[in-house]
Structures are given as C-alpha cells and as structure tokens.
Design goal:
Elements: H1 4-11, H2 31-38, E1 69-70, E2 73-74, E3 78-81, E4 87-88, E5 100-104, H3 111-122, E6 137-139, E7 185-187, H4 203-212
Parallel strand pairs: 3-5
Antiparallel strand pairs: 1-2, 4-5, 6-7
Bound molecules: zinc ion.
The site of zinc ion has 5 residues, from helix 3.
C-alpha cells in the first residue's frame, strides 16, 4: 500500500539538504541520516553504513542465514545491545554466534531505524542495493564521498517478487554520503522524488518478510 500522504510527500520538490552529521537526533531525520550520524566513528568497520558482516554473506541466498520457524512463529535469538553507541546489525542469522548482537543506541530509537535494523537481522539488504536497482535509481558516484562508495554496492538479491519500493524503510535518502551537497541517489522515473523518508516500514517490507519466511500474507 502506498498511502496518499506518502505520495504527496514524494511529489514535493527536494529540500536543500541539512548537514547530516550533527549532534542532534530528530524524529524527522531520515534513517540513513540517523545511521550516518550514529556510526560516523565506526563506519569504516562496516560492510555498509550499518551492516556488520565480512561481506561474503548474502542471507537471501543462504539457507543457514534464515532464522528458524516453529509453527507460525519465526524465532530470532537476538541480543539488543546498547553497549555500543551506534546503529548496526548483521544480515540474517550468523550461526557461529550464540547471542547475536544488534546495536541500537539511544540515537537509533526511532520506529524507522529500529525496523531498519531488524529487517537487516531478518536477512534483508538496503533497497538501493537490490539486484534490480539500476532499473529504478541512479547512483551518482561523482557526488559520493570517495571512502563511502562501498555503501552503494549492488548485491545479488532475491527480491521475492516484490517491486522496488521507494517507500521502503530500507531505502536511503537522496543525499546519503554526499561529498558536495549534490544528490547521490535519484529515482530514474522522477529525479525529484524524495527517497528514504519513510517513518515506518512499508507494506512491501512486511510482504518480503512474510514471503521469505513463508508466513501467511
Ligand atoms: Zn542499513
């Protein structure tokens, strides 16, 4: 479902970007801005901005990365950790951890950011990393900070017959990791479309989880 409210928001012309690296968390900030701010000191240790992985795992093509399902419930053995001051998760289940951590510092405690990290934990990548992303978004590499270009890698994802979703809580915003205040991500169909402004997960986000874990939809 794409609500009328979200549609009208998306049709607005893009605002001038604020400095995304500041010291104040604001509920109106995008998920990617919150993550970039919280992870500014550890981003180099991440495969992507908030993904902790060795880069070889791809949960959507890895059966052991899926969480077990008993009856109609999927069990996620997670240790929500606030001992770190960042927002990050592994992609899917990591079998060699008895207690898999997911970091949610106070700076990450917005609905969208918590859902974003949980979707990573369930096995999902960023929306702009989908295998079909080049049909839907343009990545402006010339505007990306040189040491942040790894955040725009495309992966071989199983998209579970769901459409590319600009309203996904996994979609980063237009100026993510910009070096020059120019956009780094734009919609191919509408370059003025505001991306990454979801305040909560979309129906497609939930549909993917249900399809991946074979839950009734
Ligand atoms: Zn993320």
């Amino acid at each position: 479902m794409v609500g009328a409210c979200r549609c009208s928001s998306h049709s607005a012309p893009p605002a001038r970007p604020d400095d995304v690296i500041d010291d104040v968390t604001d509920d109106n900030e995008s998920v990617s801005d919150i993550i970039a701010k919280a992870n500014k000191d550890i981003e180099s240790a991440m495969t992507e901005g908030d993904v902790k992985s060795d880069g070889r795992r791809n949960a959507l093509h890895c059966s052991s990365c899926k969480w077990p399902k008993y009856g109609k419930y999927v069990s996620i053995y997670y240790h929500f950790s606030n001992k770190y001051s960042e927002c990050w998760s592994y992609i899917g289940r990591v079998l060699y951890y008895r207690r898999q951590s997911l970091s949610l510092s106070s700076a990450c405690l917005t609905t969208a950011t918590v859902q974003h990290e949980l979707f990573h934990a369930l096995g999902f990548t960023h929306e702009h990393s989908r295998s079909d992303r080049d049909d839907h978004v343009t990545v402006h590499y010339e505007n990306i900070l040189p040491d942040k270009k790894h955040n725009f890698k495309k992966y071989r994802t199983n998209n579970l017959y769901t459409p590319y979703d600009f309203d996904s809580v996994m979609q980063y915003q237009n100026w993510a990791w910009t070096s020059n205040r120019e956009m780094t991500l734009t919609s191919k169909e509408n370059p003025k479309l505001m991306l990454g402004i979801a305040k909560s997960a979309s129906d497609n986000d939930f549909l993917r989880v249900n399809r991946y874990y074979k839950c009734p939809v």
